[in-house]
Amino acid sequence: MKRKQKLTNALVFTVLLIGALIMIIPFLWMISTAFKSVNELNTWPPSFIPKHFNFDNFTKVFQAAPFHLYFLNSVKMAVLSSLAIVFTSLISGYIFAKYRYFGLAFLFAVILATAIVPFEIYMIPLYLEMQKLDLLNKFGGLVLPYLVLSFGIFFIRQNVVQQIPDEVMEAARIDGLSDWGIFFKIVIPLMIGPMSALGIFAFIEAWNAFTWPLLVVGDQSKFTMELGLAVFQSSFTVDMTMISAASLISIIPILAVYLLLRRHIIESISMTGGK
Amino acid sequence: MEKVRRKPRLKSGHWFVILALAPIIILYAVLRFIPIVQTMYISFFEWDLISAHKPFVWLDNFKELFSSDTFIQSIRNTSLIAFGVLIFSVPFAVIIAAMLDRGVRFKSWFESLYFLPYIMPMVPVAVAWRWILDSNHGLLNYFLSFFGVPAQAWLIDTNLAIFSVVMLTVWKMVGYNMIIFLVGMKGISKENYEAASIDGATGIKAFWHITLPLLKPITVFVSTVTLIQGYNVFSQVYILASDIQGAPGHLVRVLVYDMIESGFRFYKMGYAAAEAVILFLIVLVLTALQLMLLRDKKTSRKGMKR
């Protein structure tokens, strides 16, 4: 029986290891290719570790296309989106958790209902709105749809309900704090954890955005990293080593955030299933 | 819903809610509510984005849709991809989650590695996959050559290209599904297994007779999310199959691609909106199905950790 147990353990471990390898091979391959020279690119059989590490690709990429601008645009978009989503979700999530005025429950239900509607369904009217507001091909038009997030409101509401008892608020009220005072002095300090989890989630979402930038941005200097990379890889004049170098640059911020905070990220994303 | 008792100073509370919530609700209205309703409204018109002439055509756009070969082709391809992703990613996710849940060395490392593709941006990973699937220099064909499989034209042959999209999407989604299953498995109390082990059900038997039935609500949720995401497939197709996307046969044309092309290349806004409405209907049907399947199994949900 014990031997059988050991055998099963070893088998499970091996299967998981093979699976994990499949998960990271595309990344390893991307890294390997990014450091290859063009000559080594077409050798057969393919080499896994480049014979000569070629760092030139990373400088050549910035000469071939303004990736520094793309990167900056993506950072700007992701940071602004993240801050805005944290702020809008915090205040409305708190109100939906703690206030019982007429219509609030209905509003919350409507917001939750729109959460199931994928972006692709309303992107055409959204585009037309941006056109009317003269925001096409501008940073404003790019970032505007990323300022609110239904999941964020739900997430904060859930956390307020669980972590801030009514007694705390009553006590603060007796101490003479106003509604605004309670929000700023009691709620915000208690919600730092969920706020940062949501902020990271929103940052990743905005960084990974592709379809919307593709629709609204036409001017190369306003491309995001995702859009810039998509256009770059379709050009016939660049080879796979440079494309891989550019790909690597585009995933580095997400990779860094993930390496630092993977437990928090996994936990907050697993909340999306807790609905 | 939690009971909240507060009555003092109704007036200031009202002002707080109105002032704080109004800007957010306005944003929501502009960015979500109005566009969703407008999608349906626009789908009844024929409009080229520029001209002032905008005739109301009632259901003509929908009639045109269903007589269009490219639309039928894209619905077919999108469904193949959505269900293809479903039948691979959900069983894989359950199996991986079950293996992790029974306890294994480096568990949290495995969890992190399997989850990694899910949070990565689609464009760079699709680019990497495209290179792996390359028919001349690709890693996959190299690997398959050890088993005597001749080189395949992964991204050029229609069926293989659809399969490639499925493969990439499964690879990217499986970590998310796994995490949700893991949360569900953690929620199943040990007592269930103890009781079963007295009856001789352990290991795979226990998994089959206890874990899987108790996971039904989670499976329904994960399947719905996977199908909805599958029907919205776009970025990976755009990158993987961009060579063949515009080809005469519209080989791997998917719904969102067709919608964007109708709207932003041919300026048929009403027609594109009608396609969005079809996508909306698909999402609604899937969601309704999910709610229906979950309703009779409400009890098994209580074990879930939130």
Characterization of this structure:
The complex is a heterodimer of chains A (275) and B (306). By secondary structure, chain A is an all-alpha fold. Chain A has two domains: 2-56; 58-274, Orthogonal Bundle (MetI-like fold), CATH 1.10.3720. Chain A contains 14 helices and no strands. In chain A, α1 crosses α14 (240-270) and α4 packs across α8. Chain A starts with a helix and ends in a 5-residue tail after the last helix. By secondary structure, chain B is mainly alpha-helical. Chain B has two domains: 1-42; 60-301, MetI-like (MetI-like fold), CATH 1.10.3720. Chain B is 71% helix and 0% strand. Chain B has helices at 10-42, 60-66, 69-101, 107-119, 122-132, 139-145, 158-187, 190-198, 203-214, 216-231, 235-240, 242-245, 255-264, 269-295. In chain B, α3 packs antiparallel against α10, α4 crosses α7 and α13 (255-264) runs antiparallel to α14. The interface between A and B is large, with 100 and 97 residues.
Give a quick account of the main beta sheet of chain B: strands, pairing sense, barrel closure: none
What's the number of helices of chain A? 14
Count of domain modules of chain A? 2
The percentage helix of chain B is over 70%
The CATH homologous superfamily name of the largest domain in chain B equals: MetI-like
- Strand-residue proportion of chain A: under 5%
Q: Average the pLDDT over all residues of chain A and give the rounded result.
A: 91
End-to-end C-alpha gap of chain A = 41 Å
CATH topology of the largest domain in chain B: MetI-like fold
Task: Give the terminus-to-terminus CA distance of chain B.
Answer: 15 Å
Low-confidence stretches of chain B: 244-249, 299-306
Uncertain stretches of chain A: none
Name of the CATH first level of the largest domain in chain A: Mainly Alpha
| CATH structural architecture of the largest domain in chain A | Orthogonal Bundle
Nearest-angstrom radius of gyration of chain B? 24 Å
How is the biggest beta sheet of chain A arranged?
Answer: none
By CATH's scheme, which homologous superfamily of the largest domain in chain A applies? MetI-like
SSE topology string of chain A: HHHHHHHHHHHHHH
Shape of chain B: globular
The string of secondary-structure elements of chain B, in order, is HHHHHHHHHHHHHH
| Oligomer description | heterodimer
Pfam families (chain A): BPD_transp_1
Transmembrane segments (chain A): 7-31, 77-97, 104-127, 139-156, 182-204, 242-261
GO cellular component, one term (chain A): plasma membrane
Protein name (chain A): Carbohydrate ABC transporter permease
